[in-house]
Amino acid sequence: MKRIKSTTKLTFFTTLLITSLFILLYMMVVMDINADLLHKGINYSYFGASPTLVILLIITSALSYFVSSLIIDRIFNPIRLMITKVNEIGNMNFSKPLAISSENDEFTEYANAFNKMSENLKSHIERQKRFISDASHELVTPITVINGHADLLLRRWREQPEILDNELVIIKSEALRMNELVEGLLLLARSDSKKQVYKFERIELNKLILESVSDAKIIFPDFEFKTTLQDNVEIMCDELSVRQVLRIILSNAVKYSGSSRQIIISTSKTHSLVNITVTDFGIGIKEEHLPFIFDRFYRVDDSRSKKTGSSGLGLAIAKEIVTAHGGELNVVSEPGSGSKFTVILSS
Ligand code: ADP
């Protein structure tokens, strides 16, 4: 069945309404005239001049049809524009925003909200695309290395069994790197879709920090980790995740330490908040990079980071975890002097 457009229906009903009103008005005038004639003692019923009535009716209907279709068309025009835009966005076409009229009415409000939504959607899709492309790019390197070394083993290990150990170590370390990368990507993907599960418990902060530092001392025996911790407090957190944050920040302090070998871990308390600060005296970060270091895959020095096996995901993951705890992760840094990363959590 053919669908009748809302505008046609509205125009038809408006015309019908105006014409009916006209007839009603006309009847009232006729009744008034008749009452007047009766009052003057003239026994004559006036029903109006029929041809004039018909002409008036036609003119009224035509006029009301014309005027109401104009008005309704004007009212529906922004809705038509919106339908076109929604269809365009449905086809992933974000080329032009919805035109905003100068009148400050509901449609302007709607157009503003719509454009904001479309802008957010566009940047979200772009971020997703960049994320997938960066992730694939990062995964290609370990896969290529594993493939190359596995090929080498297949070709040569019978004649040169001494290469076996070395090649397996390389394959194992690349597999570990790939595993770390995939774990990081999964955490970020789960966080994006609000599916990352945190198990919040009351944890003794100093114990958690001292254990993390002692792990770091084992992994980086050449470094001096100095702790200045305030009175112990308990915090509500997912212990493993907060340990992961400290691991990321401590290993960055080591990776970007330059010639310095000292790292200081301190805590302080302000009202209901605790600050965990990791200070290094390494290469520091130039101011222009600071706004981006928490972005996924952002590396200040690509070649240096790649040499250290860095992925550029560490701080993005740390920030994600801290934010999920309702906290903050801040940095102050000076090139050549070092950096200070502060995790703020509620106690
Ligand atoms: P990566 O895996 O490359 O270390 P991160 O997300 O942990 O990735 O860090 C992003 C970038 O921030 C690093 O590539 C590095 O350039 C910079 N950065 C992080 N921590 C420090 C630090 N303590 N000192 C100097 N630069 C740092």
Structural overview:
Helices cover 59% and strands 13% of the residues. The protein is built from 8 helices and 7 strands, in the order ααααβαββαββααββ. The longest helix is centred in the middle third of the chain and has 51 residues, at 106-156. It is elongated, with a radius of gyration of 37 Å. The mean pLDDT is 89. Bound molecules: adenosine-5'-diphosphate.
- Profile the largest sheet: 5 strands, mixed
- The Cα radius of gyration reads 37 Å
> Which runs of at least 5 residues are low in confidence (pLDDT < 50)?
none
- The helix content is 55-70%
| Overall pLDDT score | 89
Q: Ends: how far apart?
A: 66 Å
Largest sheet, order of strands side by side? 2-4-5-7-6
Query: How large a portion of the residues is in β-strands, by DSSP E?
Result: 5-15%
Shape: elongated
The arrangement of helices and strands along the chain is HHHHEHEEHEEHHEE
SS content category = alpha+beta
Bound small molecules, deduplicated: adenosine-5'-diphosphate
Number of continuous helical runs: 8
Number of strands: 7
